[in-house]
Design brief:
Layout (H helix, E strand, L loop, with lengths): L5 H4 L2 H10 L16 H9 L2 E4 L8 H5 L6 E4 L10 H6 L2 E4 L1 H20 L2 H11 L5 H4 L8 E6 L3 H10 L4 E6 L5 H7 L2 E2 L2 H7 L2 E4 L13 H6 L5 E4 L8 H10 L3 E4 L19 E3 L11 H16 L7 E2 L1 H4 L4
Parallel strand pairs: 1-2, 2-3, 4-5, 4-7, 5-6, 7-8, 8-9, 9-10
Antiparallel strand pairs: 3-11
Length: 328
């Protein structure tokens, strides 16, 4: 994993459990798998399981050759696309991830963004900052409120499903677009299925939770943004590439739409980007996922999986080559 992460991921409690579950040196964190470090080479030669997290080096053929006994990878974070390669599947490695644990804070961030957007909090806060005086807020915010808002969820992913669950106590109508969702899925989630154009056209708030695939790149394009009603809000906590950034910026500069953006393309907008200062935009630096003490939830899940492996049980959160093709 990346330097400095292990100290934030694992508490003393986690380290004690880790050393009870496996023969390991918790102080040995490999940032490269084919480098000159003799300690890493020695550990890889006998390693049966790799415990990985963000910034893990790619497990390519050369890395696997250095780890002849490797049988499993336990990823204490979300997507494994950055380090699990075709060579891993060819080896027959068992792979799991803590994606379900990482999904929870993203869904919570999204719920907060939905409710604040419906209440027009961003608009009132920015206006109040400028006025610094009394104002007729009831007239100003006559279109505010979350009663019977229509929320469009793009993607019934782990995060998308969790957002739908979190919205259940509220008086909102939820639309769903997901080409892979079955009728049983839609019925269990209690949502209304629609196509993407219909979702954009009918939603007060559109929240993007689809995976980053060739087929989803810029799926929210200029035409679909134009379908969104005046004053609607786009929330993106998935990947910046799913939205046509130039088209969205044009809509935001015009003031027609609002946006809550935790991800953009590029990952960090140019220093002079209007996204930083537009009054109808809340821009955050990719912090919706696990942060601070939320890292410990992923560590707990990873150690649960390691314990299952040690007992000869299948992973509870497995990842396969087939599911990876259409997941984040």
């Amino acid at each position: 994993m990346e330097p400095g992460l292990a100290e934030r991921l694992f508490t003393d409690r986690h380290l004690a459990r880790l050393t009870a579950l496996a023969r390991t040196d918790p102080r040995l964190i490999a940032h490269q798998l084919t480098g000159p470090d003799p300690r890493t080479r020695t550990a890889l030669a006998t390693a049966e399981v790799l415990l990985t997290c963000w910034g893990a080096p790619e497990l390519n053929a050369a890395a696997l050759e250095a780890a002849p006994r490797l049988r499993a990878v336990v990823h204490a974070a979300g997507s494994v696309k950055h380090h699990i390669t075709a060579a891993c599947w060819e080896r027959g490695l068992a792979v799991c991830s803590a994606a379900s644990a990482n999904a929870l804070p993203v869904a919570e961030y999204t719920l907060a963004a939905i409710l604040l957007s419906g209440k027009r909090v961003l608009r009132s806060a920015r206006l109040y900052e400028g006025l610094r005086s009394s104002h007729d807020w009831r007239r100003e915010l006559a279109d505010a409120g979350n009663y019977r808002r229509t929320v469009g969820i793009v993607g019934a992913s782990r995060i998308g499903r969790r957002v739908i669950e979190l919205l259940r106590p509220f008086d909102v109508r939820v639309l769903l677009y997901d080409p892979y969702a079955t009728d049983a899925d839609v019925s269990a989630l209690g949502v209304v299925r629609t196509d993407l154009d219909g979702l954009c056209r009918r939603s007060d708030i559109v929240s993007v939770h689809a995976p980053e695939l060739a087929t989803t790149r810029r799926m929210i394009d200029a035409r679909r943004l134009a379908l969104m009603p005046d004053g609607a809000t786009l929330i993106n906590t998935s990947r910046g590439s799913l939205v046509d950034g130039d088209a969205l910026l044009a809509e935001l500069v015009s003031g027609r739409l609002y946006a809550v953006l935790d991800v953009t393309e590029p990952e960090v907008p140019d220093g002079d980007s209007p996204l930083y200062t537009l009054p109808n935009v809340l821009l955050t630096p990719h912090v919706a996922g696990s942060l601070g003490n939320e890292l410990h939830r992923m560590a707990d899940l990873a150690l649960d999986e390691l314990e299952r492996y040690g007992k000869g049980l299948p992973f509870a959160e497995p990842v396969s080559a087939e599911t990876l093709e259409r997941s984040a």
